[in-house]
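Today's session is about reading a structure prediction critically. Students often jump straight to the picture, but the first step is always the sequence itself: look for stretches that repeat, for charged clusters, for runs of hydrophobic residues. Only then move on to the predicted structure, which in these notes is written as discrete structure tokens rather than atom positions. Here is the chain we will use throughout the hour.
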Amino acid sequence: MEREELTLKKTITLRSKNQLTIPNDVVEKLNLHQGDAFEVSVENGRVVLIPVVTIEKDQAWFWTKDWQVNEEQAQIDIENGNVKKFSSTDALFSDLDDENDEDD
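Below is the predicted structure for this chain, in token form.
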């Protein structure tokens, strides 16, 4: 997915408790919402805020490289019709048993 380049220059003021308000047009353009998380860094004397998505620990497995590679392959198989449909779980398990018998 290509990132749309956004160039907006605004002047904002650091308030008490080191708070900044992000202008509404920036919030809308980036589809930000209350409670969103940001990575904060300093690069060449500039403060850089990058919106980030946090993933709950019990869901992190889905985003591992290996799992994503397998997800991509599964999508390719689906798109190419390389899938089977079963009328019941018994039929599914029977097919799996048949494949295991062939591998032995």
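Discussion point for the tutorial: The chain has two domains: 1-54, 57-103.
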